[in-house]
Amino acid sequence: MSDRPITLVTRGSALALTQTRTILAQCQAAFPELGFEIQIVKTTGDRLQRSAPDPALPPPAKGLFTKELEHELLENRADLAIHSLKDLPTELPDGLILGAVSQRVDVRDVLIYRDATFKPSNPAETWGRGLAPHVTVADFPENAQIGTGSTRRQAQLSSIRPDFRFSPIRGNVGTRLSKLASMGELDGIVLAAAGLNRLHFHIQPDGRLVHSLPDSAEPAGAPLEAPDGLLAIHLPVESMIPCVGQAAIGIEIRRGDPRVQAICDRLNDPGTLQCVLAERFFLAAMGGGCLSPIGAHAQMVDGELCLNAVSFIDGERRQGQVKGEPSQAEALAQDLATKLRA
Fold it and tell me: Is residue 242 part of a domain?
C-alpha cells in the first residue's frame, strides 16, 4: 500500500463528525501502520438547513447530503466518504460504490415532547401542552403539532393519528431540541434513536431525555445538551417502520481502488450489509428516494432474511413482508415491491 494518508471526507455536523471519528478509530485499529485524516465539506443539505423551508417550492433533489462528498472522491481528493446510510441515494455516480457498512444500531424513531411541568423561558407565555412520562402516540392532544420534515414519518403517524398536524423542522439534533423547548406551537418532534445515541443522548427510566458525554469521548463541534423538561419515547418498529438504511453508517469509495477496498473489507459488517442492500433494492424497485414516504426494515432471523416494508406513495398505506435466503436479497425486494405496487 502507498504511504499517502487515507482521507475520510464528511459533513461538519456533530453527528457526521462523531460517526466519522468512529470509522477513523476502526481504521486506525485495523491498520496501525497507515496514516488517516478527516476532511470536512459543506453540502447542499447543510446550506438548506440554515434556511426556512418554502412550501411553494418542489421537494429538494436527491443527494442533498452526499453529492459534494462524492465529488471529492471522484476528484481523488478523498478516499472514503462517510455517510448516514439513510442519506445515500440508491443510485450512485459512475465510478463509485458502497464499499462497506457499519454494524447497525437501534433502528427505531424517537418521539420527543415537553413534560407537564415545563416552564417556558418567557414567564408571560402559557403553553400547557406538556405530557406525562411514558405516554403513547394515542395520548397526545387532539390536533397535536409534530415537527418533522420526513414524509415517511408523517404518513405513518397520520395512519395512527389522522388529526396530527406537521411542521417541517431543520437543523442538527441540538437545534431541533432547542426549537421544541422554545416553540410553544410544537407538541413534539421525531428523531432517529441512532443519531441521539451516537451523540450521547439517552432516555432515562423516568422518561427524561438527558445528555451525558463519557469522559473518553471527544466533543464533536459545539457542546450539546438536552434542554430541561424534555421527555421521550421509542416508537415501535411495528408501527413506525424506519427509513431505508437507518442506523447504519455507509462508506462510499471509488470503484477499482484496491488499497481502499482492503480497508473497507475489514470495516464491513456482513449481516448489516445484507439487510441494508435488501432495503435499498426495495426502495429502488419502488422508484423512490430517501425523501419518499417509504419505510423498509430487514433483519436476519434464524438464518433467513426478513424484509418488512410500507409505502404511502399513492396515498394509501400498503405494507408487506417477505422472507428468504440472504443471497436472494434483490429478488426478495423486487417481489415485495411488485406486491405493494399491485
Answer: no
Reported as a single tens digit per residue, the pLDDT across 186-234 is 999 999 999 999 999 999 999 999 998 776 666 555 567 788 899 999 9
- What residues are labeled active site? 87
State the angle between helix axes of 14-30 and 173-182 in degrees (0 to 180), rounded to the nearest 10. 150
What is the reported pTM?
A: 0.89
Answer yes or no: are the C-beta atoms of 106 and 194 closer than 8 Å: yes
- Residue 257, Cβ neighbours under 10 Å: how many? 18
Q: Does the residue 171 lie in any domain? A: yes
Distance CA 6, CA 16 (A): 18
Tens of pLDDT, residue by residue over 128-169, are 578 999 999 999 999 999 999 999 999 999 999 999 999 999
- Predicted confidence band at 47 (pLDDT cuts at 50, 70, 90)? low
Q: Which amino acid is at 45?
A: G
Number of independent structural domains in the chain: 3
Domain CATH for 196: 3.40.190.10
Residue 30 has pLDDT above 50, yes or no: yes
- Listed in sequence order, the residues at least 6 apart from 131 whose beta carbon sits closer than 8 Å to its beta carbon are 113, 114, 115, 116, 139, 140, 231
Q: Return the sign of the alpha-carbon dihedral for residues 61, 187, 195, 333.
A: negative
What is the percent of the chain where pLDDT is above 70? Answer: 88
Beta strands in 144-279 (DSSP E): 145-147, 165-167, 188-192, 201-203, 209-211, 230-235, 249-254
Cell numbers representing residue 245 in the block: 438504511
Check whether residue 91 and residue 114 sit in a common domain: no
